[in-house]
Amino acid sequence: MFTTLLIANRGEIACRVAATARRLGIKTIAVYSDADAESKHVAACDVAVRLGPASASESYLKADDILRVALEQGAQAIHPGYGFLSENEAFAEACTKAGICFVGPPASAIAAMGSKSAAKTLMQKAGVPLVPGYHGDEQAPDFLRQQADAMGYPVLIKASAGGGGKGMRVVTASKDFIAALTSCKREASASFGDDKVLIERYLQKPRHIEIQVFSDTHNQHVYLFERDCSVQRRHQKVIEEAPAPGMTDARRQAMGEAAIAAARAVNYVGAGTVEFIAEPDGKFYFMEMNTRLQVEHPVTEMITGLDLVEWQLRVASGERLPKTQQELQRCGHAIEARIYAENADKDFLPSIGRLMHLEFPTHDAFVNADVRVDGGVRAGDTISPYYDPMIAKLIVRGADREQARARMLRALAATQIVGVHTNVAFLSRLMGDEAFAQADLDTGLIERRRETLLPAPTPASRESLLLAAAAVLEQERETGTQDPWAERNGWRVDGKYARTLSFQDAESTQDVVVEIVERQLTLAVATHRATVEVVSQAAGNPYAQRVTLLMGNGQLAGTVVRQGTRIDVFVMGKCETLFLKDALASAGQAEADHAGSLTAPMPGKIIAIEVQAGDKVKRGQALLVMEAMKMEHTIVAGVDGIVENIHFGVGEQVAEGAVLISLEQ
Fold first, then answer.
1. What's the pLDDT score for residue 582?
2. CA pair distance 537, 322, nearest whole angstrom
């Protein structure tokens, strides 16, 4: 086993690798960009070395610089994590030539599986079943459309060198093919430096099932069972679980043997994932092989009790696989939820900002826990536009799927994040959804359950209003002065005090009437009145407080996070956001924008403009395309009108909130 390891990645995977390395007595070296100088993964390692500016192309993707740091620091091995250089054959080859162990497969295996088209040809020869489609080198748009027309719609356009849902579009009609192809190629080129695509028949109600494989340098191969990754949005995984619901032993063995055949075909070494698409009748087809550890590897660890990172390090150092296929056992059911900084109500648009408040359920940080959190951020960190917006992974295990689902619901209810939009509430609805509970899974689940999973906003609850009002009163009491005439804590000469606090939620304004008579506090929301005693204590940061309202024989407790007029209330397993209205403070405040302006939803780069000044446009028409957080975001007209002005050009960087296009209605 080597003694010094450089981790060529960031975020939760860098923290995860560092934890295992520390347990094995291996010294770790972190690399970081300017955006990550104070990050959790830097603190987790023994040594940290700056790579460059925040952009990944100037830091985490600079293979030569990473290799130089490894040599200067005396690293014997480099763990690439996932993403960035983890599937870069040139980097793996350069490590080998420099005498440094690349913790992953040989460059030849990465190359063989790096092109989806070439990989499918190879798998066909190995006898692994394939989805019908076109995987050739001819890339002329009209030719590709002809292939799609002959195949029949719907079809899936997929970046040949891609992954993570990038460079992927479902096309349902021939007339939409060229536009979707253009977008796919552009996104693929930006993400992978290769705009080649393949076309496949888009299967109806398919499940996404993957097999975890492991191989060593002694030609031993095993599969560590399967994961179901069917629940996706924008072709990106949201929920993963192991084992796959409804999987029979015979089908598991067939898929496992097919995955090992794929690994053998490329002389694989290390951790890899063979991904299959499965139809309701049980037929399954090879999609791709990810030549690295996967984001969702913890669910496999939870049901096997194994540390897959430790396996990686042992195999990379030349040891044999720790277990044979016959020795591998499964225990229980595990579910992983990816917690993203994104706004589910706005088509999962990524969100950026500072994490003002961050709290997770009580958990164990390692593989044998019933509740585990893998995260790469801390309270006070910033979710930036430069990297993937995942905040953490929440993983639970139960004796069976129903117990695991119940534990996930409780764990999500205990997760508190303020500072960015998150998908926590969406994940809770997903866990409680009837289709998910009954394991009626397929890659279109979120879309077909959209009305249930993405409901219209509702007014804030009475519980949130009471806690918010109590928190405001407590904060005013704590910041009061010794002058009784200046205090805002309810003191009056005649012992009576009345006041109305107005809160704005997503739907309306609601009032809480505050009355204090002889120092006894009463709060009223609509027709509900309660005499309460407020107990408040700090909740770990300057913005948060834990508030308990004692009401007769009962009580109401929650966490309240306040930033200026914004108040986030965590109560009864959910979070509601309110804004304290102050008539004097808001009087005369101008509207920041108008209906004819289209603003940038986040920082990013303009990569395409579809209109010109003077063009007439219809509501919903695409006007321009931005690239941010590794994804394309299309800006559409909100009203019918005429393009009055285009404020930026292709290639320009824009700030969040910048006016991109002005429309004359």
1. 65
2. 49
Q: Select from 207, 432, 233, 206 the least CA-distant residue to 338.
A: 233
Please provide the CATH number assigned to the domain covering 597-664.
2.40.50.100
Q: Could you give the CA distance from residue 500 to residue 228 in angstroms, rounded to a whole number?
A: 52
**What CATH number should be reported for the domain whose range is 4-103?**
3.40.50.20
Identify the three-state secondary structure at position 529. Answer: strand
Query: Containing H/E element for 120?
Result: helix 116-125
Give the residue among 503, 229, 506, 231 at the shortest CA–CA distance from 345. Answer: 506
CA 408, 414, 420, 425 torsion-angle sign: positive
> What three-state secondary structure class fits 11?
helix
Query: How many other C-beta atoms lie within 10 A of the C-beta of residue 653?
Result: 13
Domain boundaries, the chain: 4-103, 132-201, 207-450, 462-586, 597-664
- In the numeric block, the tokens 């092109």 are attached to 115
| CA 548 to mean position of chain CA atoms | 33
| Residue at token pair 């290769």 | 194
Please state, as a whole number, how many other Cβ atoms lie within 10 Å of the Cβ of residue 615: 14
- How many percent of the chain have pLDDT more than 90? 71
Per-residue model confidence as pLDDT tens digits over 539-552: 878 899 999 999 98
Query: Helix (H, G, I), strand (E, B), or coil: what is residue 266?
Result: coil
Pick the CATH number of 462-586 from 3.30.700.40, 3.40.50.360, 3.10.129.10, 3.40.1080.10: 3.30.700.40
Distance between CA atoms of residues 624 and 253, nearest Å: 48
Residue entry with tokens 């191989």: 215
631-636 sheet: strands from edge to edge: 631-636, 622-628, 604-609, 653-654
Q: Note whether 396 and 407 are within 8 A (CB).
A: yes
H or E stretch at 242: strand 239-242
Tokens 């979710």 locate to: 383
Residue with tokens 């969100």: 351
Apex 305 CA angle, 300 and 309, nearest 5: 65
Per DSSP, helices labelled H in 55-160 are 63-73, 89-97, 107-114, 116-125, 141-151
Integer Cα distance of 517 and 532 in angstroms: 12
Write down the pLDDT at residue 586.
41
- Record the tokens describing residue 210, joined without a space: 């993957």
Q: Give 491's DSSP letter.
A: -
Q: What is the DSSP letter of 36?
A: G
Helix (H) or strand (E) holding 143: helix 141-151
pLDDT 10s digits, 247-298: 999 999 999 999 999 999 999 999 999 999 998 888 899 989 999 999 999 9
So which residues are the catalytic ones? Answer: 292
The CATH class for the domain spanning 207-450 reads alpha beta
Q: Which residues contact 368 (CB under 8 A, 6 or more apart)?
A: 305
Architecture per CATH, 132-201: 2-Layer Sandwich (3.30)
Pick from 94, 374, 105, 119: which is nearest to 214 by CA?
A: 105
Residue 644 contacts residue 619 (beta carbons within 8 Å): no
